[in-house]
Amino acid sequence: MEEPLKLLHSVVQAIHPLDNADWEALSAIWKPFSARRKEIITCAGETERYIYFVTDGVQRIYYLDDQNREATIVFTYRPSFGGIIDSVLMEVPSRYYYETLTPSTFIRAPYCEFKAIAYERPAIERMLRAGMTQTLSGILERLVEVQCFSSEDKFRNLLKRSPHILQLVPHKYLANYLGIDPTNFSKLVNKVRI
């Protein structure tokens, strides 16, 4: 099994173990994909057609309001799934952008093929549901942080969840993600140690 599929296999098995036949069916639909630094993979207004699995690089999903202000929603990096998940699952135009921050490599699967396999193989559908449940739990935690936590507490929680993030993601995007002024973010980087 080639390296990207081995990585995908380990993540899938951690979410919901699949037997060999289900894994063989699922692994057959993934193809390599790459993007340059600062490349928009999915634009707002486009319907996402792929499920991505990140094998290298860092990406972000962001929202752009009518005054051209950006709000970074999430970062993706090895080994995680990527893409505009609500657009792909509901098959509706995206409200968000999916952009690479560094040169990035992926394997990706067309959602139409993924959906067909999940329909035929209940274990794959259960794996998708388990993964979505974990994602929803993380989104709810993030909403509490955004609405209730101080800037320092948001920063501390980010470092607890992803201690390596300061080396992966440019600080201006982390400040935006946390809703902190870049100057205050720099102060937190120098002040807070986990």
From TrEMBL:
Cited InterPro entries: cNMP-bd_dom, cNMP-bd_dom_sf, RmlC-like_jellyroll
Name the UniProt record assigns to this protein: cAMP-binding domain of CRP or a regulatory subunit of cAMP-dependent protein kinases
